[in-house]
Design a protein that fits this description.
Blueprint (H helix, E strand, L loop, with lengths): L23 E5 L26 E5 L2 E4 L4 E4 L2 E3 L3 H12 L4 E3 H8 L5 H19 L9 E4 L3 E4 L37 H5 L8 H42 L3 H12 L6 H10 E9 L4 E6 L8 E5 L2 E7 L2 E7 L6 E6 L5 E5 L10 E4 L2 E3 L7 E3 L2 E4 L5 H9 L13 E3 L2 E3 L1 H5 L33 H10 L7 H8 L40 E8 L2 E5 L14 E3 L8 E2 L3 E3 L5 H4 L17 H9 L11 E6 L5 E9 L6 E9 L6 E7 L18 H5 L3 E5 L13 E2 L15 E2 L4 H19 L5 E11 L1 H4 L1 H6 L4 E7 L14 H4 L7 E6 L7 H11 L7 E6 L7 H16 L7
Parallel strand pairs: 9-15, 22-25, 30-31, 30-34, 34-35, 35-36, 36-37
Antiparallel strand pairs: 1-2, 2-3, 3-4, 4-5, 6-8, 7-8, 9-12, 10-11, 10-13, 13-14, 16-19, 17-18, 19-26, 20-21, 22-23, 23-24, 27-28, 28-29, 29-31, 32-33
Amino acid sequence: MTTLRGAIPARRIVSPQTNHSAAISWKKLSPDDLGVLHSGSRSGGCGMPLLPTENMVRFGPFELDLRTRQLTRNGAKIRLSQQPVQVLSLLLETPGEIVTREEFRRRLWSSDVFVDFDHGLNKSIQKLRDALGDSAGSPRYIETIPRIGYRFIALANEAGGSVEPPSETGIFAPPAAPALPSAHLPKWHVPWVMGDSRRVPWEIPVAGLVLIGLVVVGTLYWTRNSRERWARDQALPEVLRLIDEDKKDQAFQLALQAKRYIPNDPVLLRTLSVFTKPISIRTTPGGADIYVRTYSAGEKDWTFLGKSPLENVLVPWHYLRLRIEKAGFGTIEAASVAIPTTKLRFILDEVGSGPANMVRVPGSTFQFRSAAPVELADYWLDKYEVTNRQFNDFIGKGGYQNLANWKHEFIRNGRRVSWQEALGEFKDITGRIAPSTWELGSYPDGQGDFPVAGVSWYEAAAYCESVGKSLPTVYHWYKAAGLGVASDILRFSNFDGKGPAAVGSHQGLGPYGTYDMAGNIKEWTWNEAGSKRYILGGAWNESKYMFAVEDARPPFDRSAALGFRCAKYSSPPTEVLTRPIDTLNRDYSKETPVPDSVFAFYKNLYSYDHTELDPKVEAVDDSSKYWRRERVSFRAAYGNERVTAYLFLPRNARPPYATVIFFPGVHAYFEKSSENIGPEFDFVVRSGRALLYPIYVGTYERRITSISVRQTPEEVVQPGGACLPVGPKGSRDLVPEWAKDIGRSIDYLETRSDIDSRHLGYMGLSLGAVWGPVLTAVEPRFKASALVGGGLPFEKLPSEIEPINFAPRVKTPTLMVNGQQDFIFPVESSQDPLFRFLGVAGADKRHVTFDSGHLPPSEPVIKESLNWLDRYLGQVQSPH
């Protein structure tokens, strides 16, 4: 490969978190004197080969003599061994660009000492930082790119201001660059400028043509690379800042823009993996425009994803709003959680072909809490609650007097009531036939678009009948409401206690495009509950948690917050869907755990032989300033398998470390790779404790492809579901194997001198919190347990894995941290029963709830968890 020889002008490198005074200059040196720099041409910040032929490199107050390997500061010599200087030299080959750990290993270390390489590189970087007065947290010269490598940085982005890529208006109009005086031009450039009067005349035109060609090629090259520099040095730091500020839509838009220029950049790809997930979207017909934004974002934050079908397109890992548009077809609004297996399908209807102001809800097998699974065909549901204006039309058309609208027997207090007698009940406050909240047969002025309220179940059913519709069954209503892991809808719904609001004026959007299913007014549904009828969704004058709590009222109830919306079916619902429903909740007050004799038999299913572990440290990553990550493995307690685990060792404490074993949420079922895994509860490590993250059977690389999760992709977790895979290797096998994975993990920790195996804790998130009582009941070596977002499941499970049978046997001090509006595990019917059943002494268990959905905010989780660990695992000792 040809290398350029000659002077290279000083360069200013724009990069995040750097010092404005730092600049690099090169003094003359032959390439033969460059040591590691002479191993081949490398690209500089502009993509040009950068092999200097100068004997000194200057940055800030420092100079590095590449011939003698001497580093000086303001002329004073700094003692450094050979290896740190080689590392610095390699970084200086391409200032502003990443040098990967793999490249350091290939260029500077032998290929047969992987673990020694990690230690050696980390030690060299630390020695360099010590010599330069630099730090990993606020780098001026050497920046750590977590789990990737390092780069030498020179100048910082100016704070504030918008981050825009270079102009793309034309290749001949790149951003302006300062001109260099001719005296400072590289020597190879001077003859073209100065010429030679003794040359043959035709050489000048030829030289001019060559110069023009070089200018054109150089401009193209410069423009492309200026955009790459913009993406790396401006866009990426801004993306990280936006993520930290929870501005995921803006971060997403900017990251996509940067991806156009650096599609394979490892830092960008790692950043995207942290806050985006791939989903697939199909429409019938295809060719629809797909837009997305996070649920809480504003109208300006819509991002165009492309035209359908879209396969594995990246979206923010969040609860999302989607908009699907195609000329000649009705626009679809939807909401969905993004997980890697999400496959969304939408049917577009031609304008005018579907029922007006209704949304299509796709059919599926649907299960709500402890109710039996049911089959739902596609159906339509009103986009909004029925309004005062619409109900007034019903009255004006004689709806109360038309007997054909009243299909159901009137039953009051167990006694049949005649139609004429029932009509006498349906009066407003002035005695006119109208909803109870009206006056003189009319709704309040200016409230035509408010939901009609103060109507009985019978009136609601009659209205729906009059327009060729029906009240939705409980199953159809809950399917459309989409109670799942996300509670964002509550923030945008009417629970303000002031009164109803115009339909659609709040932005509480359901997964299929409905509005106001949470709050505003409660909505009558078809099914009976004894002598009552179910009415769902909560109202403006109720607490937010009522959105997820089923309620039933007497069918003659005309309270001021009772209203409805209608459904339309292609064929009448089956009797399975319309029959009475006794309860939708599992009533744990009527259940008793198995006796000790039976439990002893169950516990034997979780035991294993403590055979040889054959432990291995497979990889070490020291790139984080907070921890050292080791990928370890050991033999499983079953089959011929090995368990992989990630051990995070803190930098701010001295060994032996108290250690927490982590069990993740349901997303671990769907992720294919644990390569980019980090401590989801990083505060544990930053508090000075180690954290072990085993890759449990059924998760990540150990996924079992022959099984599936019960929940459909668009309803990731059904309320109260245990989130267990089903199939030939399903629930009965999986839970005991999880316990054995944990047991073997503890066996491994006991082999390490840097781990305090007498002080071990368990921490479970969502899925891990559900199974925490089982796993801690059979493992006595835990001294503390923290369960975040858990509770007792509503579905009946095999007795040998049923949490209610294990909770009374838990003797580990247990903390429960939950959301008060958790749709998955509601407080009264799921969280509280678990807390009561826990067998640990009253002083050693604690249950705290916060005003949130399924998962509480991070700040109180951190505070409560660390206080609990301090109490039962002991205070952390500082390294000094």
